Structures are given as C-alpha cells and as structure tokens.
Amino acid sequence: MGSRIVILGGGTGGTLAANRLRRVVGDDVAVVVVDHDNSHVYQPGLLFVPFGLTHLDEIVRPRQHQFHRGIEFHQAAVDHVDLGAQQVLLEDGIALDYDVLVVATGATLLPEETEGLTGRGWMEKMFTFYTPPGAVALHDALAWFDEGRLVVGVVDLPIKCPVAPLEFCFLADWYFRQRGIRDRIELTYVTPLDGAFTTRVAAATLAGLLREKGVELVTEFNTGEVDGPGGRLISYDDREVGFDLAVMVPLHGGAPYVGRSPGLGDELNFVPTDEHTLQARSWPNVFVIGDAANVPTSKAGSVTHFEGEVLVENVRRFLAGEPLDRTFDGHSNCFIETGFSKALLIDFNYDTEPLPGHFPTSVGLPLLKESRLNHLGKLMFQWFYWHSLLPGRDIPGIGSAMPEHGKHREPAPL
Amino acid sequence: MPSATFAGKVVAVNDEGFLENPDEWSEEIASAIARAEGIELTEQHWRVIKFMRAEYAEKGTGPTVRVLGKTSGVSIKELYLLFPKGPAKLAAKIAGIPKPRGCI
Fold first, then answer.
1. Cβ pair A332:B66 closer than 8 A
2. Orientation angle between helical segments A164-178 and A200-212, nearest 10 degrees
3. Rounded alpha-carbon distances, angstroms, from residue A377 to A176, A343, A344, A381
4. Could you tell me if residue B102 is inside a domain?
5. Residue of chain A nearest B59, judged by CA positions
6. Residue A216 pairs with which residues in a beta bridge?
7. CA-CA distance, A238 to A119, in Å (whole number)?
8. How far apart are CA A28 and CA A411, in angstroms?
C-alpha cells in the first residue's frame, strides 16, 4: 500500500516541494497539493505594480500549470488539520488522509488587527502593496498624488520580505523624480525597529541610502492606530506621524486554519518548527516550508527555495525511517531595488548578518552595494522563479548553504 | 564582560544592561533594575514579568509586544503605560531574560 504526502499551499514553497518530492519519492507515493485558489502570484513583482513597472497579468499564473506530472492538485480551502487522525478536513467536505503533511500556507495579512487601518480611508488614502488589489489601487492613487507627505509604515514584524518597504521608499523617490515633482513630496519611513533594518551592518547602509534619497526615518514607532480621516499614524506611546498617503505593511499571521488545528500553531498561527530540520515541533510527520514556519530567518522566497532541499530530503528520510538531515542554516538572499536601475544584494543566515563583499564568490555580484548588475539580477530573477525555482531545480552556482567566500568580515569588536 | 550591582549583588550584564545569566535573577534584582529605569513595580508589572520569565523558560526567548498583548492578559496599550517606550524590551530587562530576539 503506497503512502500519501499532502502539501497545504500551492505557492512558492508548496510548488517547489511538490515538484522536488515527485522526483524523489517512488511512484507508489501520492503527492497532493491543496490550495483555495488557482492563482500563483510572483510576489516580488507586487512591489513594481504601483510604479507601473509591471502589471498583474505579467506576475500571475495558474497554480496548476506549475506542477510536474503525477502531482494531484485539489482546489479547496482547509478547514482544519487533525494531527492525531493524520487527516486534513477541507471546507468542501472532503477529508484527506496523509502519511506526511507539508505545511506551506505562508503568511496572511491582518490589516483589521490595527485599529482604524481598514476603516475610513482604507484603499483611498491608506493602501498596502502586499496584495494584488492593493498594489493596483495604489498604482492609481500614486498617479494622482502630486503634493504632500507619503508615509511608508511597517506595523510590526514579522513581515514577508522585510526589505520591500525600504525598496518602496527608494522607488518612490525615483518615481517622483521622474515625474519632476520630487520637491513637492515628503517621504517618510516609519518602523518599529530601532534602525532601518534588523541587522547592524545592513541597517547602517540602508539608513545611509534613505538619507541620500531624502527619506525621513522614524524609528521605534509601534503603530497602534491609524486615523484615516485625520491622516495620522498614532503609536502605542502616543506619538503621531501625519500623512496624506499611507503605504502600510499590515500585521502578518499564519493561515487561519492553523489556529483551528489544535496543537499545530503558535499564538500568531505560525507553526513552531525545528530551524535545522524543518520538522514541526508538534508532530513528527509534519514538515513546514516557507513563511508558515516560525524559524528565525526572513520570510522570503529565497529562504523558501533554500529550505526546499533539506525539507524534501527529510520527508524522504522520514518515510524511509532514517535520521533527519540537520543542515538548514537559515540562508537568505535578497536583491534590494534602489531605483534608477540599480539594486543592492544581501546574503545572510541564522548566524551571519548581511556583510559587504561579493556573492557567491569574490568575483560575483557586489554585496551591500548599489550596482546595475544587481538590478539586472533582480529582473532576471522572475525568469528563474518560473523556470527553475518552482520546478525544483537548483540555480547554478547557488547552493542551499550560505557561501562564506567573498564576504568581508570585520575584525571582531574588542 | 561588564557587571552591575543590583540590590547589593554583583551580576554580569551585557552592554545594554541585560542580565547575562537569567538564573542570577531575583525579585529584589528586578525591583532594583526597574528603579534604575524609573519604574516602581506594581502588581500589574509583576504579572507581566512573571509571564515573561515563564515564556522564556518554555521557549528560550521572550515574547514580542504583539505576542504579549495576545497572551499575557495585559493589553498592548497598558503594556506601554507600564513599561514606556519598548514594553517587550524593558520588561525582558527587568525580568532578567535576554532581549527578545527580533525578527529578521
């Protein structure tokens, strides 16, 4: 009797895991992917939609077309998982038994958890580019915006692609310069962090770029309330930032069904996961890939891609009764678009913060430094995404583990 | 390694003043750290501090403000009144546990 792997979520993680697993496990093992819709969004593309640099039809494709032969796609929403019974209950009434469950349902936006954010002014003067409709609506709003204060605000972490709101600031500077009205626009970046970014060296570089581009940086601001009609972000400690247009990154949580599945998730509905094996802490036959996991690294497509190798190997080992591979290192790699056809590249893992140097070796792309080559890399990446990353192929020269060569380490502080 | 003296006891701290070893913590030390931060501890403060220590013992890291607001029974607004500026950070410091691991 063959076994069955059920993968919840047909986004980046679910798709690449399904395709890799299909190659690795025998024909007697069924691979089933469940998702509530059939639209696969190339999420890095959403950043470019508001500026008219790409359109939704260029970044959305049917999920179903991304799967290799022999993978079953079931379109339905998940009601809950019964870990003890090894069963997924779907909202269409079907119950799917599994031998191994892969959770790949990503992060969910929770704008309604911030007081006032989805009240008056939502999608009129407060937007988010983290959803396709939000990105499109913001495109139209930006086209009309020709004077005043544009605030880019992060409510709280964790968020998907933590560099995206900074990229939005850089592109907004470029966008308004192109339109010849930069002097009439005030740009402000509001973050709950105590700097422009979480890690020290990159925070300094990114704060420098914000300064260079005339973007004001407001730190340690925990947005507790958004007053749409009054145009104000109000922090929990009663500070205020006024806006004419607010581009917000709402709170994130895991998928709602995680909360309805006893024992699966934490208080934010992310799934507690071993950071090196990607096995869920709750149950040995549950594995987690991508933003759904609570592992301490970025919620980003590159991380998901690097996780794929270890996850698939561990599902195989689990089915074969072998000990798990403990080698996932939290590797993350992001291009940071800085406008004017340039970009920065950062590369890091659980233990090493983003450092300057070159990637993946000393003759590669410049790290933590603006260059046109990185911008081309970012543009090229969409092709790799559909044709290499989702099908579950490795990108030549870029392995799962973070490369050390080419990085400039500072002398250790005294 | 820097050290500090709280309630007559010398303890190792990091450069931000967080206790290096959570086992060296005591309620007297908590009160002394709080006083140095300008806070006189009330029953509500203790509720949060004890919650932080329990979370740390269980999970190896202190909760963020958002998680505190969801799970401690004290609202985020009140957390800011109790521990002004950065509740998670300040409460962790007083509770003698490491600064909550920021998300990346």
1. no
2. 20
3. 24, 9, 10, 6
4. no
5. A272
6. A188
7. 19
8. 54
- The string of pLDDT tens digits covering residues A65-117 is 999 999 999 999 999 999 999 999 999 999 999 999 999 999 999 999 999 99
Q: Are A231 and A243 in contact (CB under 8 A)?
A: yes
Residue of B71, B76, B101 lying closest to A224 (CB–CB): B76
Kindly determine whether residue B104 and residue A332, on different chains, have CB atoms separated by under 8 Å: yes
Residue A162 is classified by DSSP as T
By CB neighbour count within 10 A (0-12 exposed, 13-18 middle, 19+ buried), where does B79 fall? buried
Burial class (CB in 10 A: 0-12, 13-18, 19+), A140: exposed
Whether residue B103 is contained in a domain is answered as no
Residues of B in contact with A267 (CB under 8 A): 67, 70-71
Q: Is residue B24 part of a domain?
A: yes
Contacting B with CB below 8 Å, chain A residues are 156-158, 162, 193, 198-199, 220, 222, 224, 236-237, 251, 267-268, 296-298, 332, 348
For tokens 């590797």, the residue is A331
- Please give the ipTM for the structure prediction: 0.82
Q: Which domains does chain A possess? A: 4-109+253-320 (3.50.50.60), 111-252 (3.50.50.60)
Question: What does the pLDDT look like over A120-146, one tens digit per residue?
Answer: 999 999 999 999 999 999 999 999 999
Give dist(CA A1, CA A238) in Å, integer. Answer: 62
